[in-house]
Amino acid sequence: MVSYRRVAAATLVAAFSIFPLARAHAEADAESLVNALNAVFGAHPGQRAAHTHGICVKGNFVASADAATLTKAPHFNSKTPVGVIGRFSMGGGNPEAPNGQKDNVRAIALHFDLGKGNTTDLLMISAPVFVAKDPDQFLKLLTTVATKDKEKIGEYFKENPNSTRQAQWLNARPVPASFATVDYWGVHAFTFTNAEGKKQIIKYKALPLAGEAAISDEDAKNKDPDFYRPELKERLAKGPAQFKLIAILGEAGDPTDDPTALWPEDQRKTVTLGTLSITDFEDAKTCDAGIFDPTNVVDGIEGPENDKIFPMRSQAYAVSFSRRAAP
Ligand code: HEM
Known about the structure:
single chain; Catalase HpII,  Chain A, domain 1; ten-stranded antiparallel beta sheet; 11 helices; 31% helix; 24% strand; globular; binds protoporphyrin IX containing FE
């Protein structure tokens, strides 16, 4: 599958960096980032270095009629439902990260089945921003947090206010009652190209069709750390958990190189791309057999050119995968 080819390629890139001098100056690379994630959250054999606590699911995606006006990507042009394998998860590398944690992101990762063993992937989190603008800043954040030195950590956030944006955003909102009742964002800016060659910068967002639903901070603290699983089971017994997937249309001047920068979303036009339906649980092995890779895009979709986080993700996921898949 595409994911495996990419894992192999990315592992090679990570192993034979063409910038050995830069590495000597402790610039972030995939290995150092995964090591730093392990330093913060612990290394958990056989498990992901981040988004460790998760649930594998499956379902389908039905493209809207409007999606084709923006992109020629096959899953956004299909006249029939496209199969989807997905994984809901909590952010961070704690395998027991409580579902009720307020200042943590929920996430959904998707493989769209393009047929003949090919997939294209989309990863989204329940906040419009990431915690670092580039890999060096992310490494600095992780290594500082790993010291557990409150003074140093406070200093870091004072000097790097963009790293506080995600937590501020999460803390200003209630704890989602379910993986199926919260908005998700793709965070990076992608470029869509339609059949006429017209290009449009977009950001992905998924909105729960059941509406947003939340629980109080007090209730969240008293909940079982794994309460999203039985909640999802009960929900799926009644019908699919559905999301409207939309493209937020970027305008001139909207930043495309910094995943900590917000777009003025309420002032932007949107186009509905289609409906995602999560219909059932899937064996965890199906999700763990490869990686959900944000750079695994398809003709009609391009990743951001100058966003340094974007390509680094693919490499870091490959390192995490090679470690968790090691016998
Ligand atoms: C340089 C920055 C980043 C690093 C080093 C990083 C690191 C990681 C690692 C190591 C994994 C586990 C991969 C695996 O074993 O399969 C992971 C998973 C994930 N990351 Fe990131 N990440 C970064 C940025 C982001 C951003 C910006 C997003 C926002 C959408 C994001 C969303 C996710 C999601 C949703 C998963 C879970 C995938 C799954 O369920 O398998 N990450 N990340």
